[in-house]
C-alpha cells in the first residue's frame, strides 16, 4: 500500500488503513492494488485462518524516516463492519437496534378488498386438477397456523393448503409437484412466516441514510416488513408473499416479491393468488427512489447548496459533504421533528455543539474533531442507537480511543486495539 502512496516519498507522513478478513478485504489507499500488496493480503488471510480470527482492521502512520505506528483493531461485538469505514466500522450503541424505517408498521388501509380476479373456487379446482393425489391440511391445522402467525389468512391461501399441506419431512416428491403446480418453491403450512423488517436489515452505514414512503396510489406499502406479508414460497432467492396489508392502490391477498438484495419495499407480481397460479402476472411500474426530497437531503458540492434548501418537516436524513465554501450551521434544522440521521464530513460544521439541539437523532456520523468537541462538552446525544467516526485523508490514529469514549457512555464493551511501533529500513522504503 505504501508503494502507491505519493506523499511518503515526497517527505510527508503517509497513512494507510484497511480491513482484512479470511474471505475478503477493504483497503483505503491511493492507486491500484499492486501484486505485492495482494500477495501480502493473502499471507495475512492465511495467518488469520490459522489463528481462528475472522478479521482484523488496521491503521498505520509512517514517518518519512521510516518510523511506523501500526494499530490493529480486533473484532468486536459492538462494531458493525462497513465499507465506508475501513479501519473501524459503525458503533452499535444499543443491542438489536434497527433504523426507524425497519421498525415502521403498516398503515391501515380501510376498505382493502381482494382483487376481482381472486376466485377461491377456480383456484381450488385448478390445484386439484394439477395435484389429484395431494394431501391437504385440516381446518384445525390451518387455524393453528393462523394462531401462530397472529393473522387471518386470505381465503385463497387457505384453499392452497386445503389442497396440499406440503410436508417436506415426509415426501419431497410431493413438495416438488406442489411447487410446480403453484409456480414457485412452495413452503409447507408449518413453515409459513411473516416477513420481518429485522430479517432484511443490512447495515447501519447504509440503512440509516435511507427513507421510503408509500405513494397515495401505491399497490404495495414501502416497508421493510409487515406482519401481513406472509411468505409462502420463493424463486430460489427472493420470497413470494401474500400481502394482507396492501398499499392504498393494492388488493388484500395480492402476491408480492420481496427482493433479498434490497432492504425496503416489495414488488407486486399478481393481483391475487388465483392470478399467480394461472400465470397472470403483472408488475407495478413505479419509481421507488429513496433519495429524493423531502425525506433525504444531501448538502455540498454538486448537491443542495444551503441547509435552508433541505429544511422540510418531513426531513429524516441529512448528509453534509465537504466542499470549498464555509462550514454549515445546523440552526435551520434544529426544530425538525423527524430528523433522525446526521452525517457530516470532517470540518463541514461551523459549530458541532449545535448537534445538542437535535433531539431525535438515532445515527450520527462525524469527524474525529467534531466528536472530540461533543465528548469534552458532555453533549453527545443520548438518543443515538449507532454512531460512526470518520477521518479526512486517514489523518487520525486515535480513532479507537474516541470510539471507546463514545461506547463508554452506553456502558458498551470496549474495542481492543494493539499498537505496535517499529521502523522500515531503507530496503523496504519506496524508491
Please give a handful of descriptors for the protein shown.
single chain, 431 residues, alpha+beta, 7-stranded mixed sheet, 6-stranded antiparallel sheet, 10 helices, globular
Can you put this structure into words, describing what you see?
By secondary structure, this protein is α+β, with helices and mostly antiparallel strands. Helices cover about 20% and strands about 20% of the residues. It is built from ten helices and 18 strands. A hairpin with a 4-residue loop joins strand 9 (about 230-235) and strand 10. The longest helix has 17 residues, at about 35-50. It starts with 13 loop residues before the first strand and ends in an 8-residue tail after the last strand.
Which structural class do you get from the secondary structure elements?
A: alpha+beta
C-alpha termini separation: 14 Å
Mean pLDDT: 87
Q: Tell me about the biggest sheet?
A: 7 strands, mixed
Q: What is the CA-atom radius of gyration, in angstroms?
A: 27 Å
| Number of helices in the DSSP assignment | 10
The poorly predicted ranges are 287-291
Strand order of the largest sheet: 5-6-17-16-15-14-13
Proportion of beta-strand residues: 15-25%
List the SSEs and their pairings.
Blueprint: E1 14-21, E2 25-28, H1 35-51, E3 55-62, E4 67-73, E5 79-82, E6 85-92, H2 120-130, H3 139-149, H4 155-163, H5 172-182, E7 185-186, E8 193-194, H6 197-200, H7 204-207, E9 229-234, E10 239-243, E11 254-258, E12 267-270, H8 273-277, E13 296-299, E14 317-320, E15 341-344, E16 363-367, H9 368-377, E17 386-390, H10 399-409, E18 417-423
Amino acid at each position: 500500500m505504501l508503494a502507491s502512496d505519493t506523499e511518503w516519498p515526497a517527505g510527508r507522513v503517509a497513512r494507510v488503513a484497511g480491513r482484512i478478513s479470511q474471505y475478503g478485504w477493504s483497503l483505503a489507499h491511493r492507486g491500484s492494488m499492486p501484486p505485492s500488496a495482494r500477495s501480502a493480503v493473502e499471507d495475512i488471510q492465511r495467518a488469520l485462518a490459522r489463528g481462528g480470527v475472522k478479521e482484523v482492521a488496521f491503521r498505520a502512520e509512517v514517518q518519512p524516516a521510516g518510523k511506523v505506528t501500526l494499530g490493529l483493531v480486533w473484532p468486536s461485538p459492538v462494531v458493525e463492519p462497513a465499507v465506508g469505514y475501513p479501519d473501524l466500522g459503525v458503533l452499535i450503541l444499543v443491542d438489536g437496534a434497527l433504523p426507524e424505517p425497519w421498525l415502521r408498521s403498516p398503515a391501515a388501509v380501510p376498505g382493502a378488498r381482494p382483487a376481482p380476479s381472486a376466485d377461491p373456487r377456480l383456484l381450488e379446482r385448478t390445484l386439484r386438477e394439477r395435484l389429484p393425489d395431494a394431501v391437504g391440511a385440516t381446518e384445525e391445522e390451518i387455524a393453528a397456523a393462523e394462531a401462530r402467525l397472529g393473522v387471518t389468512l386470505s381465503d385463497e391461501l387457505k384453499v392452497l393448503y386445503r389442497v396440499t399441506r406440503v410436508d417436506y419431512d415426509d415426501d419431497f416428491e410431493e413438495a416438488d409437484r406442489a411447487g410446480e403446480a403453484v409456480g414457485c418453491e412452495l413452503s409447507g403450512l408449518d413453515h409459513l412466516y411473516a416477513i420481518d423488517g429485522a430479517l432484511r436489515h443490512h447495515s447501519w452505514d447504509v440503512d440509516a441514510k435511507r427513507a421510503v414512503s408509500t405513494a397515495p396510489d401505491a399497490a404495495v406499502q414501502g416497508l421493510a416488513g409487515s406482519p401481513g406479508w406472509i411468505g409462502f414460497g420463493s424463486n430460489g432467492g427472493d420470497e413470494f408473499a401474500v400481502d394482507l396489508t396492501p398499499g392504498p392502490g393494492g388488493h388484500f391477498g395480492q402476491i408480492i416479491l420481496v427482493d433479498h438484495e434490497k432492504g425496503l419495499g416489495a414488488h407486486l407480481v399478481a393481483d391475487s393468488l388465483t392470478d399467480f397460479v394461472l400465470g397472470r402476472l403483472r408488475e407495478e411500474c413505479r419509481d421507488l427512489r429513496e433519495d429524493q426530497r423531502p425525506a433525504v437531503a444531501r448538502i455540498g458540492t454538486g448537491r443542495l447548496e444551503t441547509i435552508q434548501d433541505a429544511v422540510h418537516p418531513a426531513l429524516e436524513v441529512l448528509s453534509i459533504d465537504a466542499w470549498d465554501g464555509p462550514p454549515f450551521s445546523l440552526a435551520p434544522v434544529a426544530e425538525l421533528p423527524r430528523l433522525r440521521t446526521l452525517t457530516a464530513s470532517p470540518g463541514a460544521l461551523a459549530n458541532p455543539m449545535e448537534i445538542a439541539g437535535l433531539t431525535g437523532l438515532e445515527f450520527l456520523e462525524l469527524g474525529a474533531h467534531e466528536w472530540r468537541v461533543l465528548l469534552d462538552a458532555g453533549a453527545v446525544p443520548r438518543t443515538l442507537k449507532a454512531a460512526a467516526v470518520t477521518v479526512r485523508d486517514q489523518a487520525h490514529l486515535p480513532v479507537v480511543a474516541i470510539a471507546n469514549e463514545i461506547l463508554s457512555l452506553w456502558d458498551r464493551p470496549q474495542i481492543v486495539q494493539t499498537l505496535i511501533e517499529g521502523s522500515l529500513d531503507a530496503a523496504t522504503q519506496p524508491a
